[in-house]
Amino acid sequence: MANPQPLVSVILPFYNAPFLKESIQSILNQSYSNFELILIDNASTDNSSAVAKSFEHISNVQLLREPEKGVVFASNTGMQSAKGSLIVRMDADDIAYPNRLKWQVEAFEIEPSLGLVSGLVEYMGPKENEGFRHYVNWLNDIQTEDEIRINQFVEFPIANPTIMIRKEVVEQFGMYEEGDFPEDYEFFLRLQSHGVKMKKVNKIILKWRDLETRLTRTDDRYAQDSFFRIKAKYLAQWLIKNNPFHPKVYLWGAGRLSRRRSEYVIEEGVQAVKFIDVKAGNHTIHYSDVPEKDEAFIVSYVGNRGARDEIRDFLNGRGYIEGINYIIAS
What we know:
By secondary structure, the chain is of the alpha/beta class.
């Protein structure tokens, strides 16, 4: 018999999901038992509905239907129905490790001040997709509260389907929002802007499947420009609180792509004193001429991974402190 008041509510929205049965089973096979599993059928047109229905007889499984298409609506429907004080996101393509819930619940018990706990992921996808592999390796290296905070504007440093979050945090700061932006990254940045404490368990908790049909590949809301527009909104808010020279900054990156991306934050009211690059010009200074750390705040929009690390090393060598004197935004 299901616990009428489970501690954990696992939210699993799905739409035409070929790996749904495997994903559901990975949750039901958890070593931790005090949970409910809420399946949300988001207007599937294949046999996914039948697959989900075959699990309805299990006492801690609930099947809901959300006719309005979109992962935002399906996820929010699940959250609204959650009985647990801890809410878990799970995607219909992924496989949870057997101790996923156990490890995440333990992290909350050890640190009651945490609002969100994530974990590491194992990449499942084509070998030739080196870009996504690099991204997975990058986010797996980011684990502590400080590392997540410092890297929030580089890329999304948390895999959305690894999230376990306190229900009270969702009630206080809202659920996913629909718009012309990636809803998971916006949700993360919104929580960061309110100072919600986050960390990861130092264990792989999920096999993260990379498919050609992923929304991140097929939906314009997940295009690079969409990321940079929503990033600029929250970066501008962050700079108000953290840049002692606000609204003035030095923007590192004078190339066409860096300039285009930095335009979004300029539109949010941030003022560029100078651009920093490998060549000096009318509005650009050579990187060797950056001001002293107590005289400026630097935002870097250089996206190349190797160059990004070189910029960090250079500024750190000049006495700059990341998050205090500069921030990486690409």
